Amino acid sequence: MDHVVVVGAGLGGVRVVEQLRANGHEGRITLVGAEEHPPYDRPPLSKQVLSGVWDAERVVLKDKPALDGLNVAYRFGSAAVALNDTTVELEDGSTVTGDAIVIATGVAARTIPGQPEGVWTLRTLDDATALRDALGDSQSLLVVGGGFIGAEVAHAARQRGLDVTVLEAMPTTCQHALGPELGALTNRLFTEAGVDLRCGTRMTRFVDAHTVELADGSTLSADIVLVGIGATPDVSWLGLETNGIHCDRTGRVDGASSTWALGDVAAWWDDVRGARCRTEHWTTTVDQAAIVARDILGAELPPPSVPYVWSDQFGLKIQLVGRPDLADNLLPLTGEGLDGGPVRGTVVAYFAGDTVVGVAAFGAPRFLPRLRGQVAAGAHRGTITSLMQELIGGVVR
Asked: Dihedral through CA 119, CA 77, CA 130, CA 62, nearest 10?
């Protein structure tokens, strides 16, 4: 595997490059990116960049001199349009051939059929800087979708004093990630911040770039309309229509001995679920990059990790570890959020039977390091309650 071609110059692509060099690869590496920008980090886009706390340069992961220092050739500003065996075709008509191909093209923001020009989405650095400037010149924002991105954009807009309305088709916000019971806690974060939150509300069409029509026939208008309803894997250039590139537990693409995929675009085999799973988590991408690099080099693989994701919403950090979608019951560990008290300080465990499969913490980061290890170990309910009693010196329900 003398020449490794990495397609996708985001977090996953950069971390693979770094891991290849760190693990002794001395051959050629070419990094291909669709954007003109050098590789940058995406989580700050909807947080620090959108709020104006960071400038655009601060999100850069590796600038060109840093890539030169890793002896990496890079091709930015020309997206991959096809893959033929181990040859990548670029939209400028050129090609690059490697001994190993790593696909890390990520996802694209999902849109709504009939979505007109001028309705916003947030995925790229250019999206974030343009939206930041637009918020400064606007009085109102309408967000379609109450997930993590919708919450973070709504928070940034409220900080600037905009009137914010959020439409969410599900009964609660962030329900896909947290489930309905804990989604009710994020509902409170929205409303306590002054957001006009409308759950269980569906829009039927866009009247124009500033107005939507709801299922009851009424309309809502705002200076800015943003759609934040998730993302779709960037696989069309491969001629695929699947929800992610199918890979084994090391990221090797099914049926392709010299091709790997990782990050948001890839559906890896998950031994815990017994199925392939596409996980859009920053930490999962970092963990997968280490596995892919070592698998390419035939090195010893790192141990499995447990999924982890976070979101900064309305001055509160929400942290989620594990696989809460496998749960069939919850156990409040500390805090009063589920009893109508403050959301901050609430920690809840997800269980499948009596086995812990996840933990969510709302503004309570000190508990996560110990609990994360218990989730990774699949600890019993009694072990979790004993640990929490040790950590807080109280009684766990």
From this structure: 130
Pairing type for strands 308-313 and 73-76 reads unpaired
Is residue 26's pLDDT more than 80? yes
- Whose structure tokens read 């990094």? 31
pTM confidence score: 0.94
d(CA 229, CA 155): 16
Distance CA 322, CA 305 (A): 9
Structure tokens at 328: 């069939």
Q: What is the DSSP string of 253-266?
A: BTT-TTEEE-GGGE
Amino acid at 164: V
3-class DSSP assignment, residue 214:
strand
**Residue 364 in 3-state DSSP?**
coil
Task: Note whether 136 and 113 are within 8 A (CB).
Answer: no
Q: Give the Cβ contact number of residue 386 at 10 Å.
A: 13
**AA identity, residue 329:** N
Mean pLDDT of the 158-177 span? 97
Condensed to tens digits (0 to 9), the pLDDT of residues 187-215 reads 999 999 999 999 999 999 999 999 999 99
At residue 395, the pLDDT reads: 54
Residue 139 has, within 13 A of its CA and on its CB side, a CA count of 1
Instruction: Give the three-class secondary structure for 11.
Output: helix
CB atoms within 10 A of CB 231: 17
Give the chain's domains with CATH numbers. 3-108+231-297 (3.50.50.60), 111-227 (3.50.50.60), 315-392 (3.30.390.30)
Q: Pick from 143, 116, 121: which is nearest to 205 by CA?
A: 116
- In whole angstroms, how far apart are CA 24 and each of 99, 104, 334, 344? 17, 21, 46, 45
Distance CA 281, CA 115 (A): 27
Please answer whether residues 394 and 367 qualify as being in contact, where contact means their C-beta atoms are separated by less than 8 angstroms: no
